[in-house]
Amino acid sequence: MGVARVALCAAVCGMAWRLTISSQRSFVSTPSRTIRPTSAEPNFDTPIWHAQPSNTGSSRLAEAAAVSLLGLCAARLFARRPASKSRSRPAVAATDVEVDMNDIEQAPENLREWRISAGDKVRAAGATWPAPKNDRLLRAARGEPNDRPPKWMMRQAGRYLPEYMALLKNSDFFTVCETPTLAAEVTLQPFRRYPSLDSLIIFSDILVVPAAMGMPCKMVPAVGPQFDFAIETPEDLAKLNFTPDVKETLGYVFDAVFWTRQRVNNEVPVIGFSGAPWTLMGYMVEGGAVRSFDRAKKWLYLYPEESRRLLKALREIIVEYLIGQYDAGAPLLTVFDTNCGQIPPSVYEDFCVEDLKYIATEVKRQRPKALMTVFPKDGEMGVFNDSAFDVVGVSWTASPRRAREQCPDKTLQGNLDPHVLYADPKVIKAETERMAYEFGVDRYIANLGHGMLPNHPVEGPKAFIDAIDGIKKSESRAAAEKPKEAPKKAAAAPSGAPPSLLTLHLEDDTTVSVPFTTQAANDLQLRFNEFRTMFKKKMNSEKVQKWDDFDVLVELPESTVELYCNPNAFATIFDVKMFLTVKCGTAIKISSAVPLSTLQSDLEAYAS
Questions:
Q1: What is the Cα–Cα distance from 430 to 544, expressed in whole angstroms?
Q2: Three-state SS for 170?
Q3: How many helices (H) and strands (E) does the chain have?
Q4: d(Cα 217, Cα 232) in Å, to the nearest integer?
Q5: Does residue 294 sit in helix, strand or coil?
Q6: Composition of the chain by helix, strand, coil, percent to 5
Q7: 390, pLDDT greater than 50
Q8: Is the pLDDT of residue 86 over 80?
Q9: Angle of helix 354-366 relative to helix 304-327, nearest 10 degrees?
């Protein structure tokens, strides 16, 4: 009898659901109004788009009938069922959402001609694209005052959204990237779900640049993007086109930027982006997505001249690629160097920093009003303080105070640990507020310290966004103006005590020897033990709070050693890394992130 009742209910629900979806568009594919172009040529004095209502009286009657049937069915099914004391709401799965591809606003057939014509008119008039209605992001990038921090999230459009996974059932990843209609639709999905976002970022992939150079790429399930071949030896460089026609091979990205800007009615800015030369080279040498970039690092050391040749070719393509996105309507352009932390800071400065600075300088030489961001993930930020970049992205492994010290002249962006978004909304709110108050409202863009993860719950971003929306400038300034403690000093070497060499093992499997003293080593071990005690309290604490930074300065006769760590960035003591800086006078000789366990082992070996 129970089975029959369920079957009957399911049948009635099915009829009601068909009535509902026949009366209105799907939630995930269309907002509450339908937006249509008014003409094939944009008018820069008036809005390009107007809205037309999509609901009719008959559709409302159908909705009412559907709701009534569903309610009656549910009442009959659960009338004799005892109430549960607590019932958690299940997460929305991709299978719970359907996307009708016919409901997606189609780009016009003459989209490319329209884009080129509109862009030419803007440049001929010596103007720029009209500023978006919400320009908090652009004001922050220019260093102008804001009422609150602007916010967006790296990878905010993608696999964690059920509506994205539903759309992907009808297509594949790179087809979406290469189809302006679909790329714009996916770019808009997070804005529909989280309407107070202050920016969109165009849905694409950094590997479209190598693809334009002649390296076909496909998305392999459960693996990630994979090229048809890898750059294994210098001879393989002959397979690449070092001077591709960017407008032709990557024009679909420019079309997607332009179409997205039209579809969002210029409410918020659309960010354009590219991977950095070193990050792109790493994937090209590895042949696609990998867990470590050992082959790429080996290639850099084995073939330094060929590496420089490839990196410089990539930078020229990236400049043209970014300018194309700017001309299509993206006022802010980001260069993601996600593999920055894979190599030592000295090697990064030698091979990569010059090319990145060149990209920002050259883009701005050709497009002076363009705004530029660089994200050197897990690497040195300070080297970009004198660059043409307006914004520097901060990884989740760095503290706001450290970032401000290294880049005092730049707007900063970041840096919430993405894993925080798995936590309870109250925890997310507390962590987000702490981060924002440390950075301050001005010259700050709230974001994550890396991208969204595929299995993030959709409630996580909402808690992050709500927390930033509630930030008050006065509160932020008061928090930022709290006096900061100076770094604690370890015991200095006693006069006349001859230093001996302390061997330090760095992350890249290299070692360096630093003149040190036994007294300084003993005092540093004591500081490490105090840190471990504090971290144990942090792990056992049920209350969310900010724990003090570890900042120790060791003054030696010929050098200084500084160790810094933000304990709030690490989940367990086994994850902790110290940021090590060794200076001779004012010159930095060593700058590297080193695991705490490695440092303690090195000190123990020195003492023995």
A1: 7
A2: coil
A3: 21, 18
A4: 16
A5: helix
A6: 45, 15, 40
A7: yes
A8: no
A9: 30
